[in-house]
Amino acid sequence: MNATALPLEVAATSIAHEPRARLFSPAGWAAIGVALLVFGVVVPLLALAVPEGNALHLTSYALTLSGKILCYALCAVALDLVWGYCGILSLGHGLFFALGGYAMGMYLMRSIGLDGVYHMDLPDFMVFLDWKTLPWYWKGTHSFAYSALLVVLVPGLLAFVFGYFAFRSRIKGVYLSIITQALTYAAMLLFFRNDTGFGGNNGFTDFKRILGFSIHAPGTRVVLFALSGFALVGALVLCRFIVTSRLGRVVTAIRDAESRVMFCGYDPKAYKLFVWTLSAVLCGIAGALYVPQVGIINPSEMAPTNSIEMVVWVATGGRGTLFGPIVGAGVVNLAKSYFTVAAPEYWLFFLGLIFVLVTIFLPQGIVGLLRRRKQG
Amino acid sequence: MMRIRSWGRRRDNPEAPSEVLDWAPGLPHDTSGTSASAPGRVVTDDEIDTSHKVILYMEDVTVSFDGFKALNNLSFNLDDGELRCVIGPNGAGKTTMMDVITGKTSPDTGKVFLGQTIDLTRYDEPEIATLGIGRKFQKPTVFERHTVFENLELALKNDKRWWKTLGATLKSWQEDRIAAVLATIGLAGEAKRPAGLLAHGQKQRLEIGMLLVQDPRVLLLDEPVAGMTDEETAELAALLNTLRGKHSIVVVEHDMDFVARIAERVTVLHEGRVLAEGTLDDVKNNATVVEVYLGR
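Structure tokens for the assembled complex are given below, as produced in the milestone run.
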């Protein structure tokens, strides 16, 4: 929350007298080009064309792990938009991620068709609960297009309604953070119930296919990976476009001096609501890409710790930089996949330690450190 | 005609009537006025009607916080183009008065009008700012991480609805306007510096500049010289003297030397109401004022 820890250059994204600040430096555009090439060409080749056993072959484990991290990085960018630029610290973004995941999961459950354990038209968990018909909110989820719409609409609508009331009531700072945390916790409890109709604590799993393609086929997995990469790049460009616009400067101004923004004639509620809702939608898209890759979605994705982990990614990478959170999500999650194998019981302590160390020694995160180095 | 858009938290009528009848709230009609000021005239909403000379009008305004009356039946008029100094001891209600005018605080009772027709209690802060009331805070409040130029760009009179700002670019006349204001406030050389790096007095002037680019009809300045050096104070007094007549200005101030430099009429507030009003000499010689304020 402490905006004063941010460097002065952060908001100075535009150069006066230029019609519009440039989106990225030439080096930035080059990096984006390289990233697109890696996601769309290099990785697919390494995973599909290079034979197994070759040192360059990308294993399915590595592919899934990197795809997962790309989805997390997308969440981190989304969170940075509201936290780093607008000063709204959300401790509940895991909820939007999970809702996007559940919306995609409903489609994946429906496309199992008759291949489930019970060979029934209903998803297995409903048969197990002795339900005879689909609940109304499952209607239409056999359609991919409709489910894709839900991926955007459900997190977006929830964020809009929540944000509307929260920002209208001028709830800010730690109070807003606590409410977002409570919101995701309440949703988790709701989704844990079997009666809610989302598979209770087991959630959705055992997916078979997506759009007719086997979900386990290497080709499908590579496509999902590439889509995650493209979504991440797309979100980065979109967010960068927003923060370099005048709207972005109003949003950072709200973070730094909201009362002055109001007395300049801007209505901060509308601006906050825009970035807040957009951020939630991006998280929902991340969740929808995540679920087919990891093959499961359950209410533990809504656990408060998941949302807090997202905050740690952003803080570690450097908030208010958009690029930093991507780095942070990568570093922290690679550390996590190492630790949860090497010493699973210590992972949460380690995560806490990262947060403490970053807060004390790297208030501007890894990217801030690199910038300081560069400036000497 | 200005567009006022907002949702939520509107404090009174959700829709102000598009046309309202001219009326003078409790004031004698200006008999010397033109036909435009005749009673019963239909005027456009949101246009500031100063046909009776008064631009800011407060009548019997009371604000209480937990039983403490910060404003107690305060009545206050500001003429169009006037520069008024408001003085008074701590807790006299000066800042609360500004809060009421700018929509930050809703009065418990009383009327607050901009011109003859605009009931300010119906609007929230951004709307009131758009209507033409600019406010400077006691503590200089600028966007510290934005450059001086960007501070003025954000404050500039413009369409400030969010979707308009996404693709907004500065027009050349707007750049000229910013350049002119930069010259007025003496910060032309600092345009590209982050505002957070400015000296205290420069921040105060930047904040005033941010009000000026909004082309406000009324400027409210809350202790503009607090914490300033003598030189900075002199610069600000010179700046206010150039603004005299172009805007209606209310200056709340403790610094009597500064007040003496700029004052036309002075209003003394005490315990939430007007104790005295007149020239600086008038109020200085007012026995009650001397007792509660100046004499100490």
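Residues 108 and 122 of chain B are 13 Å apart (CA to CA). Chain B has a mean pLDDT of 83. Further analysis is deferred to the final report.
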